[in-house]
Specification:
The protein is α/β, with parallel strands linked by helices. The protein is built from 42 helices and twelve strands. Helix 12 (203-212) packs across helix 19.
Length: 843
């Protein structure tokens, strides 16, 4: 089956609604609904092309519902999965990019479970020895901790085993694969409901739900999860009916009953009782208790349950079993789409919807399972994991957060020690629970070394957004609340380090993450500066990942380097704006852009300064300077010249709260580093008073209408004279300027291929800018040290091994490098990870 048909078979919401409505559905109706779904996905194709594809793959007159569902699963397995010599199932290299797109909608466990069932059957769970061997031989190497298959490539295998990988950009929350999130939702429905309830009112969450299906609400989603849990139970009852006292066969009335019981009113009254054994799964699990716990993992069990269902499907003639199984798989696929970013959901705002819906919250209260998942195999892919977490702004909160992260890390290590047959005495001697003990016990047990990166959260300046003449008296400066919260969090971390002297053995560095359109590097500059004064040297910053205009993205990266005083060994996260092909960006963004006129002014000032130092046309500089003066007059009431505006722009690393005495205490109570900052500000004010006054106006200290004017939206047309001056060559000059700045400071960029393909303007891995950075495309002056990370691997359905696989395969198959040259480039990225990973107090 082609990919588009497979996707539609697993995602058609009209079919799902038909099931939910309790209506019987025949194969002709199913064919019609699938046609309509494919019609919407492929609106440029004439009907006959789509209809012929369906007729070829799906012939209702010759099929049964059982054969349709079975063929759908078999086609998934046949198209993508190949078996290796050791029995492990991997993805065909030629279809790896296509597979990566597919699993945003279809959980990869479907293909793996079907491959296991087709090749090895289901084992005999009534025979302890037989089922124990089945789990050890087939399930353990395949799905013990991860259901994500990789590619068959001995070059990559050798490279990983020889050097090990370093994941230098990964958020610990957002990393769990779908299966564990799914199990938390249907096995602990009340807890799951409680966790996601606070997100019900979030506008972005409502958009996410209705973006998948018009009218879908959180309450409706919870109902569907109740349906799925009961369908799962009914399916297992029929699968295991040979062992039951009396046989059970799913019928239409069973599905009607399940739908009725899922209604909240019926749930409260317990009106409908199931006519099957509702404890069947627990009874099955008891038969598996003799298998070691580290083999009988939740993921292995989830896979085995699907194997039982798929095996029974291939043998039964009960059409309603296939009907119920398809119903169950459709609900799970919809759940998958709500926790994994889809291929048509571009931009950070779309990504943020998955972080707001809280659907991962219950599953991600513990970390041990994720450490196993991220290390991928028994041999271990990772040597170094820089896990990012959001620190609390109070001491108690930070203690509890770190205890959970480190206690589960220790639990992960003990599991690995058990696998290596260490003695009980060794295990017991490291059974630590308080934070002091956890910090004292270093990374000494396993190959996976953990370091933690505290990332501050970028937040929107709501006061600036709501600023009017009425409330201007409450105005202090831009991002006043966030600046205060950042400093409070910094002080909490400092207090934590004073209490726990071994904290630096785990807390290695700092970052700022979340939507960069909400807060720029200038807001974080005082916090980073004070952390550096305290002895921390390892800093990175999310920049140039998402942007309204390409100029804005390039400028943000330059600001991060300068305002945060990033130095040798520091890094930039993403950096897409200084890598993306300007023509590709222009074609994908369209001819008009709406943006804040203050951002437009900053972009042009930044561009003018650095273009004036290059050999560019005087006409270009004239056009840019004219627009700068016009916007300056609109915002500040005076047409300032570009260079004085640049001087004022350069002062934004200063803390406005201190600079303008927004909240200054008595001099006698100020800490030494604050007094030092005040002294420096006074010197700057004397040396360049005009720039300082513009900086003051920028923050609206005496006139709060200026930030309001800055936030006014204006339209930028690609054909206007000023915008036309930003050609491919002009953008490349600015991109290379920032790249040279990074190279001079011996910094690296954290590249996240799948994350960028989802969030940025890319449609294929071959379009990704990493290949310019690697110097393999013929674009001179773009090379920069690159390290890889997986970002939010659960949300992007990836892992670090697969990120390397995508880069290796694209270098060879799309860029055209020889096998040896492609491997050499990938090996250099691996070695870059060793060089630029954060070390304890690097220097």
């Amino acid at each position: 089956m082609p990919q588009v048909f497979l996707k539609e078979s697993f995602r058609n919401t009209e079919v799902l609604q038909t099931y939910l409505g309790g209506q019987d559905i025949d194969l002709n109706a199913l064919s019609r609904l699938l046609f309509q779904g494919m019609r919407r996905r492929n609106w440029k194709l004439p009907d006959h092309v789509i209809r012929n594809k369906i007729d070829k793959e799906f012939e209702p007159a010759k099929s049964t519902y059982c054969s349709f569902v079975n063929e759908m699963l078999s086609s998934l397995e046949r198209r993508y999965i190949e078996q290796t010599h050791n029995g492990q199932f991997l993805v065909y290299s030629s279809l790896f990019a296509e597979w990566q797109n597919l699993i945003t909608e279809v959980p990869p466990i479907y293909a793996i479970a079907k491959a296991l069932q087709e090749n090895f059957g289901k084992g005999d769970f009534n025979n302890k020895d037989s089922i124990n061997k089945y789990f050890h031989i087939y399930l353990k190497p395949q799905v013990r901790f991860s259901a994500l298959p990789s590619v068959k490539d001995p070059r990559l295998d050798e490279l990983v085993s020889r050097l090990k990988l370093d994941d230098l950009h990964i958020h610990l929350n957002g990393s769990s694969e779908i299966e564990l999130v799914w199990r938390s939702a249907i096995k602990k429905p009340q807890l799951f409901s409680r966790e996601i309830k606070p997100a019900a009112g979030e506008a972005l969450v409502k958009e996410l739900l209705e973006g998948d299906e018009i009218g879908l609400t959180q309450a409706e989603l919870l109902k569907r999860l109740r349906v799925a849990e009961q369908l799962r139970c009914a399916l297992l009852n029929e699968v295991l009916s040979d062992d039951a006292p009396k046989p059970f066969m799913i019928g239409l009335e069973t599905i009607h009953s399940i739908n009725a019981r899922a209604e909240f009113s019926a749930l409260k009254l317990d009106t409908y009782g199931p006519n099957y054994n509702k404890h069947i799964e627990q009874e099955l699990l008891k038969k598996l208790e003799h298998i070691e716990a580290d083999v009988r993992t939740p993921l292995a069990i989830e896979t085995y349950l699907l194997i039982l269902m798929f095996d029974y499907l291939s043998k039964t003639r009960n059409e309603y079993f296939a009907y119920a199984l398809h119903y169950y798989l459709l609900i799970k696929c919809q759940f998958n789409r709500l926790i994994v970013q889809q291929t048509n959901q571009f931009g950070f705002d779309q990504f943020q919807k998955f972080t707001y819906n809280e659907m991962r919250s219950l599953a991600e209260k513990e970390y041990r399972t994720r450490y196993h998942q991220l290390n991928y195999s028994d041999m271990g892919d990772l040597e170094f994991l820089e896990g990012r977490f959001a620190p609390s702004n109070d001491l108690v909160g930070n203690v509890e957060r770190l205890k959970t992260i480190l206690n589960d890390y220790r639990s992960y290590q003990l599991t690995e020690l058990t696998t290596q047959n260490k003695t009980k005495e060794t295990l017991n001697s490291y059974n630590n629970y308080n934070l002091s003990d956890l910090l004292t016990s270093k990374n000494e047990f396993t190959s996976l070394n953990l370091s933690l990166i505290a990332h501050f959260i970028k937040k929107e300046d709501k006061r600036a957004k709501e600023l009017t003449e009425i409330n201007k008296l409450s105005w202090q400066c831009r991002h006043y609340e966030l600046r205060n919260d950042l400093d409070k969090t910094r002080r909490s971390i400092e207090a934590l380090r004073e209490r726990y002297t071994d904290l630096n053995d785990y807390l290695f560095g700092f970052d700022a993450a979340a939507n960069e359109l909400h807060a720029g590097p200038d807001v974080f500059a005082p916090t980073f500066r004070r952390l550096r004064k305290s002895g921390y040297h390892n800093f990175t910053f999310h920049a140039g990942e998402d942007y309204v205009h390409l100029l804005s993205g390039i400028r943000t990266i330059a600001e991060a380097i300068d305002y945060l005083d990033l130095k040798t060994g520091n890094r930039i996260g993403h950096g897409t704006a200084i890598g993306i092909n300007p023509d590709l960006w222009r074609n994908r963004i369209g001819n008009t852009i709406l943006m804040k006129q203050g951002d437009r002014l900053d972009d042009l000032v930044f561009a003018y300064k650095y273009l004036s130092e290059e050999e560019v046309s005087g006409r270009i500089l004239h056009l840019i300077s004219g627009e700068i003066r016009r916007l300056s007059n609109e915002i500040y009431g005076k047409p300032y010249e570009p260079f004085i505006l640049f001087d004022a722009w350069s002062l934004r690393y200063l803390d406005p709260i201190i600079a303008f005495e927004v909240k200054r205490a008595s001099q006698s109570y100020l800490r030494p580093h604050i007094k030092e900052e005040i002294s420096k500000i006074e010197q700057i004010k004397k040396s360049n008073n005009e720039a300082f006054e513009i900086f003051k106006m920028y923050h609206g200290i005496e006139d709060s209408t200026i930030p309001n004017k800055s936030n006014k939206l204006i339209e930028i047309n690609a054909h206007c004279p000023c915008e036309k001056s930003f050609s491919y060559e002009t953008f490349r000059i600015l991109q290379k300027y920032v790249i040279n700045k990074l190279n001079r400071r011996h910094m690296a960029i954290e590249s996240l291929p799948t994350s960028n393909v989802r969030i940025s303007f890319y449609e294929h891995y071959k379009e990704h800018h990493i290949f310019d950075w690697l110097g393999v495309t013929g674009e001179e002056g773009m090379e920069v040290p690159v390290v890889l990370g997986s970002d939010d691997p659960g949300i992007f359905a990836t892992n670090l091994r697969n990120e390397y696989a995508h880069v290796l395969l694209t270098l060879e198959n799309e860029i055209g490098l020889s096998s040896n040259d492609a491997l050499a480039k990938v090996e250099q990225i691996v070695r870059n990870g060793k060089i630029w990973r954060f070390k304890k107090l690097s220097y």
